[in-house]
Here is the input.
Amino acid sequence: MSILETMPPSAISDAEWEVMRIVWAHQGAFGRYIINGLQEKLSWNESTAKTLIRRLVEKGYLQAVKENGLNFYQPTVTEESCNLVAADKLFDRICTMKTGDFLGKLLDRYELSVGDIESLTAILQAKQGVEELHCQCTPCQCEHHRK
Here is the structure.
């Protein structure tokens, strides 16, 4: 089963990602904790935060569990699976022939720890490359189709 098959069908907005990041960081959180966190980081009002939480429950990204009369929100999907789906959507927009160059620019753009670099080096050393990449673009989308 692919990650997409286990994800709720509706995408989430950038604002909803802010809620999910709080919930993922704590493997769940009470509504008040989420609201306070959003107010502290983004100066959002309480009703905006409640609306975002409600939408995430409706979309299937959060489930509410009553604990002592209060709603405790648990993620129904992992942060990693959501990040992979988001990355797949991004890379689906990029010509296959440009993937390596783009990944290199991403690595150059962001600060990485020594451990991150060691881990990435090991992944690249174990990666089985292909002799030839095949462009998935339609002819009008890509210079690789020019004659």
In short: The CA atoms of residues 16 and 55 lie 8 Å apart.
